[in-house]
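Late entry, written up from scratch paper. The run itself happened at the end of the previous shift, but nothing got recorded in the book at the time, so transcribing now.
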Amino acid sequence: MVDVHPRPAAGRPTAAPGGPRGRRHAGRREREHREEVAGLLFVTPATLGIAVFVLLPMVLALLLGFTDADGFGNVRFTGAENYRRLLTDPLFWSSMRTTALYVVVFVPGVYVVALTMALLVNGALPARAFFRTAFFAPYAVSLVVVGLVWRYMLADSTGVVAQALRGLGVDDPPSFLGDPGWALWCVALISIWFFVGFYMIILLGGLQEIPTETLEAARLDGAGPWQTLWSVVLPMLRPTTFFVLVLTSIAGLAGLQAFDLIFVMTQGGPANSTSMGVFYIYQQAFKFNNVGYASAMATVYALALLALTAIAFRITRGGRFDHAD
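Output as recorded:
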């Protein structure tokens, strides 16, 4: 008769089920099982939220991109017609150029200003708590309120900025929101002013992770403030820098935060100079009822974002940095 019971490995003692080691082993497995269950319970709400509010709309947008849906229940399959249309749509490519210009200003602007602020409040600045709160304060305000306030401040004749410039001797101040050459700059600079407090907190966390012994060793070796910043702080801040740059790039390309400002301040004008990609998609979907065409543009937009994010992770090996490199 064949013995089906497992045999213990030679030279390897096994715990008896009822012995002390067996009870400890069973207790460890039960604890691990409870931790696995707890972990699943923690991630389940977030997973369901992402599935319902992110993945499902993405799939629906992908499907609607092959139709002429108008948002009122009229849906007809049109194949790749929407994708052929966006290739020849000058306003679509104009919105892409506007988005690219916005990102070129927004991403480095946010990083440089936020890093400068983080270095200030991480150093021997008097009243650091006050300045940390003051720098972060704009981020606590609704972006719609920020847009309304800045719209009145930048008004042509009665705005605070125009009156201040006249007080400084500028007889004919520019129309900040009415001139195509100024409007996008204003939106980008207001976006930077609004978001730097949030990214300052992230960079401040990265700065505080740098061991003080390392900074002290650099100082004892004769490194000055700029040399310490360039040779010690910035290399050790690379993971946080990567995170901030990826986050700001995605935020800038998606244009979700700029959408509120553009909607309140310029409505995409003047002459479509502030019509970023996400705003043009909104106009097509909810102003002109071209839901199918807007879905096709949104799909292209999402694929471009995924591709850029994948490239960034590929270059940085998934955001892992080895200080020995």
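Confidence is low (pLDDT under 50) at residues 1-6.
(Scratch paper discarded after transcription.)
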